[in-house]
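Researcher: Before we compare anything, I want clean individual predictions. No alignment, no superposition, just each chain on its own. First chain goes here; please echo the sequence and then give the structure tokens.
Model: Echoing the first chain and its structure:
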Amino acid sequence: MSKFSTLGRRSFVGVLTAGMALAMSGVSIAQELTKVAAIWTVPVEQQWASRLHNALVAAKDRGEIDYVYSENISNTDYERVMREYAEQGVQLIVGEAFGVEQPARAVASEYPEISFLMGSSLPPVEPNFATFDNFIHEPSYLTGIVAGLKTESNKIGMVGGYAIPEVNRLMNAFKAGALSVNPDVTFSVSFINSWYDPPKAKEAAFAMVDAGADILYAERFGVSDAAKERGILAIGNVIDTSADYPGTILASALWHGEPMIDKAIADVKAGSFTASDYGIYAFMEYGGSSAVYDEALAGADAVAAAKAKEAEILAKTFVVEIDDTEPTSTP
């Protein structure tokens, strides 16, 4: 046998032996991936869910997690789906507990080895039920400044999903921003009691336009459609839809899910995940939220005023109040 053949055989045997040892140890590339499941009551295209879904997809594309999800899950089915994923051995479950607080927390208590990161208006629960909210009240305040300076009728319409803290604080911050530069602004506020009903949101917005509103706050899908059809302006929320509504979206408060999702994944990997409030990672200082403006629509002065206040927020010389009370219409 030649020297080359002997070396080749030894190399092959060495690789085979190493492979067998690796297999026997139970280590594999697949097992290095953190298994994550997400459960959404809405389509993943819906603005709130999309921010987190996209962040999870990005982590999957980077090779950090094994990600699966279920969408359009009703509140009555939510607990069942949570249990199914828990039984499959996932390490992290992400979702929304707003309409299923008690069932979601009950499931988490039965699977203490699994980390749960759930959108919730209630506190975390030890040892494994962490919570979050999209705290984008800071950019919401900034978009309010732009709206307050831009309105000509001094009437702004606001359409929200449900009057829960998560929604209330954004709408209240927007109102406060507008009033800070224009105390004559009045607001018409309506809730459609749905997370995803564009036709209903659109009809509510139409009524506000008929009553004189020249700017609409689009907390839900459908409101910007009404603004576009009536030729007025709108304020976007959570995602940037300006490309879909050219000449309509004055400014938007954006939520970036990556800081929170990446932190949660890192904590699970490190074994340091705790029942804490991950909502802070939506604050502007963490890069979890931002404001964007269409200067051609808003005007340079309005954008400059908003950016000056943003600088104060980041410097912590100005704090946007968190007001979770239900916003109401003003005369």
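Researcher: Okay. Second chain, same rules.
Model: Second chain and its structure:
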Amino acid sequence: MLNQHTLEKLHSLRLTGMAEAFEQQMTQPAAQELAFEERLGLIVDQEILYRENRRLTRLLRAAKLRVNACVEDIDYRHPRGIDRSHMSTLISCQWVQRQQNLCITGPTGSGKTWLSCALGNQACRQGLSVRYFRLPRLFEQLRIAHGDGSYPRLMNQLARIDLLILDDWAIQKMVVTQRNDMMEVIEERHGLKATLIASQLPIDRWHDYIGEATLADAILDRLLHNAHRLPLKGDSMRKKQRKLD
């Protein structure tokens, strides 16, 4: 009866991890042989683990990553120009914490989206907020936001994200409103948050993609200053996967 009362108190205090650990200890005879300090330490550890897992679940759900990818599964054998030491630096996510940017470029099927999502997943695991967008979809959301009055709120949300992933950059040339919106997004984040760009188009052609010279200069200056670059090459990873299948 006393144990049940303790469990109810732990749940009322939202100490779910501790409650689960306490309940497990009550059903495990071996746990009864441990000293009080050891049992208490295990219960506290379980609460910490529970909160970390819950936070990770929340961050991954908010990130809306396009594919389920993790850095442990990166294929270094496929010849696409991935250097282990460079990837080790990126996997540490220090570039995100230092509010730097990353540009991943390469041909179709080279793994840009997969790597972007793997790095996004890694950032979530380190407690950082992440949001993935295909750039055409982001532009559509911004267009709608202009019309329904939610633009300031959306821009504020984009400005607060620790790592913003913009995939399918340069699928089609920007129009005037898109250039202006992109300038606002990049300006709000410049030097404050990290942005990851994934594109089929080489960086030296981004200026033409953006279009208007003055805005292109301003956007690229903010995006590329101190940015990490990961140019991929080689055959499509999808072709390799089909052969394995």
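Researcher: What stands out in the second chain?
Model: The radius of gyration is 23 Å. Additionally, The chain has a mean pLDDT of 87.
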